Amino acid sequence: MGDINLSLTPFGIARSTVKGEPLSEEELRKTDAYLRASLYLCIGMIYLRDNPLLKEPLSPKHLKARLLGHWGSDTGQAFTWIHMNRLIKKYDLDVLFVSGPGHGAPAILAQSYLEGVYSEVYHSITEDEEGLKRFFKQFSFPGGIGSHATPETPGSLHEGGELGYSISHAFGAVFDHPDLIALTMVGDGESETGPLATSWHSTKFLNPITDGAVLPVLHLNGYKINNPTVLSRISHEELEALFIGYGWKPYFVEGSDFTTMHQAMAATLEQAVSEIREYQKQARSTGKAFRPRWPMIILRSPKGWTAPRDVSGHHLEGYWRAHQVPIPDVASNPEHLRLLESWFKAYKPDEVFDKNGRLIEELRELAPKGNRRISANPVANAAGKRALRLPDFRKYAIENITPGVTFANGMTTMAGWLRDVVGDNLTTFRLFGPDETESNKLGSVYAKGKKVWLGDYLPEDDDGGNLAHEGRVMEMLSEHTCEGWLEGYVLSGRHGLLNSYEPFIHIIDSMVNQHCKWIEKALEVEWRNKVPSLNILLTAVVWRQDHNGFTHQDPGFLDVVSNKSPEVVRIYLPPDGNTLLSVMDHVLSSSNYVNVVVADKQDHLQFLDMEEAIAHCTKGVGIWEWASVRPTEEPDVVIASCGDVVTQEALAAVALLHEHIPELNIRFVNVVDLYKLMSHNDHPHGLTDREYSAIFTDDKPIIFNFHSYPFLVHKLTYKRPGSAQHLHVRGYKEKGNIDTPLELAIRNQTDRYTLAIDAIDRLPHLRNRTSVIRQRLKDLQIAAEHDAFENGIDPEHIRTWTWPFAKTKAGVTGDNRAKATGIGFTE
Amino acid sequence: MGDINLSLTPFGIARSTVKGEPLSEEELRKTDAYLRASLYLCIGMIYLRDNPLLKEPLSPKHLKARLLGHWGSDTGQAFTWIHMNRLIKKYDLDVLFVSGPGHGAPAILAQSYLEGVYSEVYHSITEDEEGLKRFFKQFSFPGGIGSHATPETPGSLHEGGELGYSISHAFGAVFDHPDLIALTMVGDGESETGPLATSWHSTKFLNPITDGAVLPVLHLNGYKINNPTVLSRISHEELEALFIGYGWKPYFVEGSDFTTMHQAMAATLEQAVSEIREYQKQARSTGKAFRPRWPMIILRSPKGWTAPRDVSGHHLEGYWRAHQVPIPDVASNPEHLRLLESWFKAYKPDEVFDKNGRLIEELRELAPKGNRRISANPVANAAGKRALRLPDFRKYAIENITPGVTFANGMTTMAGWLRDVVGDNLTTFRLFGPDETESNKLGSVYAKGKKVWLGDYLPEDDDGGNLAHEGRVMEMLSEHTCEGWLEGYVLSGRHGLLNSYEPFIHIIDSMVNQHCKWIEKALEVEWRNKVPSLNILLTAVVWRQDHNGFTHQDPGFLDVVSNKSPEVVRIYLPPDGNTLLSVMDHVLSSSNYVNVVVADKQDHLQFLDMEEAIAHCTKGVGIWEWASVRPTEEPDVVIASCGDVVTQEALAAVALLHEHIPELNIRFVNVVDLYKLMSHNDHPHGLTDREYSAIFTDDKPIIFNFHSYPFLVHKLTYKRPGSAQHLHVRGYKEKGNIDTPLELAIRNQTDRYTLAIDAIDRLPHLRNRTSVIRQRLKDLQIAAEHDAFENGIDPEHIRTWTWPFAKTKAGVTGDNRAKATGIGFTE
């Protein structure tokens, strides 16, 4: 290993696992002609702005001024698509194409154009010379379309700008689409990415009865931008073993000679499709699911297949130089311009297009009809989308709440509702998570949908394993795969929720970024349907990761999300159980968003009954009068919070302040919908400055206890009246260790004592009393810390701390302390 | 597949690929005793705060109030480590242990303690009863240490809090450490992550002559938190094929019976070590590198091995319930407390510890001595670190700069210097990148160090492939693997640089987060050496991704980094070539940071000669007097920039303003070191408010053109005097399409015209002239856009725009327009 190995060359007569020559002479001739038409379109897109049929001799004025676009994988992708067309017609298949290789859009766009779909959705791109000219020019041209299978591409739900997600997207699309086959081209470049490398294991989570099939075609193009690919430079034995190891049955198709390659691909694809249908039939007729060794194809062909092999003494076809624009200097090099022209003409455009530039009739017949055309597949446009049947979340409310006294678990409460969401939407909703659903206290969903598991079983699985061949919960320890499945699932029109620990959601920052970009761009595409929102529930939050320590403390995903377009992102931090229910109902009802909900999974004090919770979540931000001191008067200080754990500490700070300075007027504000803080000019949820001031005041100190990094609040509010002077935000500041919750809060200055001290330090009129009260609060803090460190847990009164103010049904009592029981801050 | 498969049970007599019983009766007895001592320590850490030798009957008062820590993988890890000890002594091996399975620290800490290392570095944790008590109590206890192999853990350079990087870290550590073997436990949970799944391919990048070896032990524990693992539930045939496919030679060791398992592991490890030594000998004696099928071990043993099999009617050992604290209710359940006590005693602590709690002498002798003790391996503490020999970057300067007129490529210039950094540090510096080094214009480094490639070769590789068995550039299309290699390389004391496209660096957000946390925590550990900085160079920046479109536009990595502790992160945005050189020299000289440098790879206008560049970079932020209008007078407006492309536009805006309103005093400010914007209270690089005001003013409008999302500047400056009123930041706002650079800038309001209009709109005293000038600027903008859209490229005068002011060597001339040539904005 590691030396010259000529068996890895992609050139020559086809070598293939499956033998046979299923194509008649005529089929072979037509298939090849269709491919030539496709490839003519591909290089046309890359080079031409005029003279699309080469009716005139090619001259520099016909070329785009800046040549862009990628040629490397086009032939292999077009080749594969075209051979699938034959089988779609033969077996009436429902096929979605997922284009994994980077920048492979020309091949996809060409198919869409040849199938007539492109002209159907873009009326100005007609099937004639003028349309062809526009079709060519718009590609990788300012104001036009990109070199990936972007949202503008009919039949695409996978852009592939960032590599690595073709397989997981494909699986997401076929879950609960039992008749769908996702023909998935996988680049050998993208195969080196981590997300792709593990996504091959998705077969252990696919049920052959209720789900469709993914048929991967690993495209061994051989090269990336400037390097060979790993998988193209290992032995046949290793490569075959790898995919057997991943659980697939690999079929090889290798070579460059078209006559034999067409026959080999036709035979191999048919074998693969037949096996898929056979496995599905077996499982469906017996009702017994199993994990087949699903077929996959390894297509080894030259990079830039059909380009000139050598240009100016350097290899082009079959080498990395064919990655992007294959001959870049055609405008300045007349010899290369002639070479390009002869390359164009080698596809014999006169034979495949009529003189008006329309694909000739005998080739048009090769494509399937209507929605069977791959580029018209409705699944790629979420066409079957149905709204979820959501049970009335009010019925799951935590009842009889005494605010700040009732102690309950919001997450398990919400899980009861989620269980019934699962139960009521058994083919259109799935819950995804990297092995944390149980840990995140959502385990009650298993009553309606178990964890899908097509791996082998052991007898002990009966002991609470909750595994089943058919289920609604998808758990694999790969955030990438879970997110990729979910993206594929929602983009194909179904609904889902990803639950994950907060600290590790950064693993999929880039995937969420890309999904946001897809949704935003899709908004601009007239024919695109809205897709269900992608929902992310973050638990195991920073403030309860005291015991797991520093590596488990990172609430910064919100910063990443908040950089995305306000049109597509929403962030919610419900403070308690009923607000969590209300928020979850809202996000699962929505479309075209990425919703992020942050909620701790531990027991918490409860504050709002259901009607109050709905009202609060509807407003997104509000004054909690019952938690304020003399709310009808002008406040001396505003205590605000956003996030569940920090709300508890902020309320405790109000209590401390009231205890020690009873005459202080305190306003308490809670934020559920983070974007309320932003200006309404910048985000549709944003408050106007007037609304903002009415809640937060212009000129009073605001002590804002925030769940995440404090700078995020500053970033959202920097222009708010008085914010620079008066807004003091506390949040996580990367001060972590193995701690108790109290100690973690103290380190980061989000604890009740620090907040209370912070408040009095901002009130100059108290200055004469400040030092005494400060010291008292400090003493309390130290005593609590000491207890915590001694025993390894926070003192009882910190953990079960209760709000000393009671709230009457009639309204606000303000400082009624009658129900103050067991509170910890009394001296 | 998919049904009960009893061959996958981890219980029973050992089954192993390698046969033989290399251990004598006595060795077997002692090895088992040493393991018992280890496991006693493990459960001691999880449960006990007192009575460490169980001299008293176990009672609730001896238990920690909150039980934390993970038991699941401890036995397998201790078992493996102990068997390696024998071979270290036998062959005088240099072994580093990388602990991949999540929360496996007890096993590692126990070894360190038994080897005496722990007491050497932590003097209060003595090898006696009192020390043992402290050792137990501190684990997962507030103020103590975590349940991962954190920086506090001797012998560790891999924390494993976030899973997936054990293999890439191990490879990073053994590169250029030819005698090192990284014994790497890989969890079957972490094996499901994408980063881990692709990192197995690292063997294609390891040279058996110049690098050491990684010996992976895949620990088939069988379960994650609450699920079986994928790899433990596929057939033996698939599992074996998978690792053959990955290029390894897998050896199985499976079972639970200790007598046979000890012999099997001893024989198997010895076989693996012998093969490693044999391959190395073969390559080194012939001087001919090759890629062996490196050995790896698959250890299938019960999760929580040696815990009780069943507790209260549920499986514990060999099931997911053994993941964390195995019997959680011992404080409240007397029966379980007795069970725990008998479990402790089953390890026969009296036999393995003397009455003072010290490991008995005959067992102490099993461990290697001095630095051969795995937990004392100096590599894990970067002990061999040497500073880089850096060539004088001044000699690589772009010379004879006419500011704003000279057009040159800063990246290729810097690449010349980088080439010599490579050449001068052939065993201590590597350049890493995901197939983008050439594309990023750094290809000249190949002259001194080619791309390492141990995959197979084809003849065409001679045509500019730049591949070699031995080299200094590491390219695999996996940002995760590149980053993991780099982390391992720097944590083991060597130097490196990762180059990557800006948009896709989000892929490793979480890895960089974790590395920052490691460095920050290591600062608090007295015995930890500083490590070379981890350097990231981002090119293919957002403003030049106009043609690749929306998916390739995301400059938000800076937001992620800026959330990390100011002690460890640095961000630089050099505006031109000489500043890039100066910055790169600085970052490669530094320690203990994560340095992020953002610089475009395209040709750019140059501004500063080398002395000016050094002065500017040293200050980090400064007024460019030569680019200001009447800089000695009070400015009417401040135009500021941070980032190379946006600096060009900001300077052009100055020129436009000066052209149209000659009497306007304009101050131009450039920021290289982003943290200068932050308060010095929050970051060591931050300016004081006074310094900030001296540069930016308190009360003049500041039009700040920023490379990244504008909110980041607001986040850093929200407290600066006057910032809320006067600071107007332009930056990327998620407005992308297929564009020209100009059009992309216009969409995001970072173009020269918008900036100039923005400025005049902030100058009320110009109001009477505003509408005319505004319209003139708008007309210019529209004309330029029209040209761009027509031709697909920006007009010549936009692309080669030159600064109309000349700078004399003597100093500032301010508005000398003598050299204004070919500028585009004249009407």
Task: Characterise the protein shown here.
Two copies of one chain form a homodimer. Chain A is of the alpha/beta class. The first copy, chain A, has three domains: 362 residues, 3-Layer(aba) Sandwich (Rossmann fold); 206 residues, Thiamin diphosphate (ThDP)-binding fold, Pyr/PP domains (Rossmann fold, 3-Layer(aba) Sandwich); 181 residues, 3-Layer(aba) Sandwich (Rossmann fold), CATH 3.40.50.920. Chain A is built from 26 helices and 23 strands. In chain A, the strands form six sheets. A six-stranded mixed β-sheet of chain A has the order 1-5-6-4-3-2, sandwiched between helices. A six-stranded parallel β-sheet of chain A has the order 13-10-14-15-17-16, sandwiched between helices. Chain A has a five-stranded mixed β-sheet with strand order 19-21-20-22-23, with helices on both faces. In chain A, strand 3, helix 7 and strand 4 form a beta-alpha-beta unit. In chain A, helix 1 crosses helix 3, helix 6 packs across helix 14 and helix 24 runs antiparallel to helix 25. At the A-B interface, helix 7, helix 8, strand 8, helix 14 and helix 15 of A face helix 7, helix 8, strand 8, helix 14 and helix 15 of B. Chains A, B: Keywords: Lyase, Thiamine pyrophosphate. Chains A, B: One of its GO terms (molecular function) is aldehyde-lyase activity. Chains A, B: It holds the Pfam family XFP_C.
